[in-house]
Design a protein that fits this description.
The complex is a heterodimer of chains A (248) and B (311).
Chain A lengths: L12 E6 L8 H10 L9 E2 L7 E2 L4 E7 L6 E7 L8 H4 L6 E3 L6 E3 L9 H5 L5 E4 L4 E4 L4 H4 L12 H5 L5 E5 L6 H9 L15 E3 L27 H11 L1
Parallel strand pairs in A: 1-11
Antiparallel strand pairs in A: 1-10, 2-3, 4-5, 6-7, 8-9
Chain B lengths: L4 H23 L9 H23 L19 H26 L4 H23 L12 H23 L9 H22 L6 H5 L7 E5 L7 H5 L9 H19 L2 H4 L3 H27 L15
Helix pairs in contact in B: 1-2, 1-4, 1-5, 1-11, 2-3, 2-5, 3-4, 4-5, 5-6, 5-11, 6-9, 9-11
Chain lengths: 248, 311
């Protein structure tokens, strides 16, 4: 059913993305593509992958923005993927029931066997989370790596989405944002994590952490800013005698 | 938004068809239209033909057409599903209405009004598909539903006038046709006026959440060539012609049919039939151009991630 769960689930799995740490290496996007082109939504079709205008389905895209002007301007790398919203219009507009939000953990998925490829869900998503697979004729989207996070054949530390597992800078965190005591919820509270386009009213589950304020001057380490010349010490003993002798 | 021809043809053709069907269902039982079975056959065939052609065209928009029947299942939440249910449900009273009129010689009031209700409901559902999409502010506003309904009424009226003229029947009461055209034109102008002046709903700053740090500009896109999002939601080709196309739609779709609607009063007979034909075709072409603009001029919030500053 494309109706939303009557009661929002207690468990709300999602991602927290730290824009202060992301270095824009695209490893998360590449590993997402790599994992999911063999996962439940496989294949993530590529059209003309070696041509002049390659095109294909990706669940994760990394944008880079310039923010602010002049000396205070900065570069922010910005990974964008499905936010697994609490009020996902992509689900309610679906005419066939292919799109759904899971009761148990809030993950938004597409049942590709029911999808008719009408594309309306992609129109309803302000975040560009859904991409149409022209080859398969159906809509595809981030599954939050549902085939990893519950995969008991994996070691517990590997039961995280592919994008999180691969991030070399640890800019991506996975967890239960419905639990106020989870590590991700504490991180969001501590760093004042925010929603993207909150004005749309979709109540995204995923949160973004803002870049930390940048220091404009040198930090204070307690050491003197300039070194004073060392006091001219006069050695004694044999070295002192040699010093006096050679100084004559 | 990408102006998909299958969807534009669908909303134009089925809009005209449902407009005509609603008028037949309401006017025929009250004796405003000829009771002649042949008139009923031609007028209903035109209405249901346009509706059916439009609905079939909409299937070409789908990636998996053979599963289209599944779209009837989610009417509790989806306007697209409701549109499908209403469209198919309307065939039943329309068929009964037609059988009664054409074969049994009885113009049923109940079937006619039910068919008209179904026609209005279907066009309403179509318009609500767009009206409900928050990421497209030019669709998510109060002018969209009245526009769809008025344009369906106008194009249906123009086709009804043509059939009346062909049969040499008593025309609709004077001033009805020009009044309908003026109503549709005023609503269309009000829609354009509204969307041109509406403040931005979202900005690159709110899309990225970085607005408090200063203006947000795209420095590097995630990919080197266009992807689905840019082709479908980032369509902006020929937007520079929008102002001219608006004027063309206004003249062809509303201005000329308005003037032509007075021909029967000055030159009945042959010229009136010709004028009605030209008015119906021009009105439909005007609605088609207007519908193309409705898509091509609409900006989607996802473009904020790709360099747009506000939608």
């Amino acid at each position: 059913m494309t109706g939303l769960p009557a009661e929002p689930s207690a468990k709300r799995l999602g991602l927290v993305i730290d824009l202060d740490i992301c270095v824009g290496c695209h490893a998360c996007a590449v590993n997402c593509k790599e994992w999911n082109t063999g996962g439940v939504a496989a294949p993530l079709t590529d059209l003309a992958p070696y041509g002049a205008d390659p095109d294909g389905v990706w669940f994760n895209r990394v944008h880079t923005y310039e923010v602010g002007e002049g000396a205070t301007g900065r570069t922010v790398h910005f990974p964008r993927s499905c936010l697994h919203c609490a009020q996902p219009a992509c689900v309610t507009v679906c005419p066939t029931g292919a799109s759904f939000k899971r009761d148990e953990d809030g993950i938004v998925l597409v049942d590709e066997d029911l999808c008719i490829g009408c594309k309306l869900c992609s129109w309803a998503c302000p975040y560009g989370a859904r991409e149409f697979d022209e080859d398969a004729g159906v809509m595809k989207k981030c599954t939050l790596c549902i085939d990893r996070i519950y995969n008991e054949t994996f070691d517990p530390e590997d039961r995280v989405p592919a994008c999180v597992a691969t991030c070399p800078a640890s800019a991506r965190h996975f967890g239960d944002l419905g639990d106020p005591d989870s590590a991700v919820s504490r991180l969001v509270a501590e760093r004042e994590g925010f929603d993207l386009m909150a004005e749309m009213g979709y109540a995204p589950t995923n949160k973004y952490l803002p870049p930390r304020p940048r220091r404009q001057g040198a930090g204070c380490t307690g050491a003197p800013a300039r070194l004073a010349p060392a006091a001219a010490a006069t050695p004694g003993g044999l070295l002192g005698w040699l010093d006096r002798l050679l100084s004559q | 938004m990408y102006p998909s021809l299958s969807v534009i043809f669908f909303t134009t053709a089925s809009g005209a068809g449902y407009g005509l069907l609603a008028l037949l269902g309401i006017l025929a039982p009250f004796g405003v239209l000829p009771a002649d079975p042949l008139f009923g056959l031609v007028a209903l065939a035109l209405a249901l033909g346009a509706i059916t052609a439009g609905l079939l065209s909409s299937l070409f928009h789908l990636g998996q057409r053979q599963r289209a029947w599944r779209a009837f299942s989610q009417w509790r939440s989806s306007w697209l599903s409701r549109e499908g249910v209403a469209a198919v449900a309307t065939y039943l009273p329309a068929a009964l209405f037609g059988i009664g009129w054409v074969f049994l010689g009885t113009v049923s009031k109940a079937a006619g009004l039910l068919a008209a209700l179904g026609a209005v409901a279907t066009v309403f559902c179509t318009s609500m598909i767009y009206r409900s999409l928050k990421p497209v502010p030019r669709w998510h506003n109060r002018w969209v539903v009245p526009n769809y309904l008025a344009l369906a009424l106008m194009s249906g009226t123009l086709w009804l006038v043509l059939v009346l003229q062909i049969f040499g029947a008593r025309p609709l009461p004077a001033a009805t046709v020009p009044a309908v055209i003026v109503l549709a034109a005023v609503l269309k102008l009000a829609y354009w006026r509204f969307v041109d002046a509406a403040p931005a709903t979202s900005t690159a700053g709110s899309a990225t959440g970085l607005g408090s740090m200063g203006t947000v500009r795209l420095f590097e896109a995630p990919h080197t060539s266009e992807n689905y999002l840019l082709k479908e939601m980032g369509f902006s080709i020929a937007r520079k012609h929008a102002a001219r196309l608006r004027r063309i739609a206004m003249v062809l779709g509303f201005g000329l049919p308005f003037l032509l609607s007075f021909v029967p009063f000055v030159a009945p007979g042959g010229p009136a039939v010709a004028a009605a034909f030209v008015a119906a075709v021009l009105g439909t072409v005007g609605v088609f151009i207007e519908r193309w603009l409705f898509f091509a001029e609409a900006r989607h919030a996802v473009t904020l991630y790709y360099g747009a500053s506000a939608v």
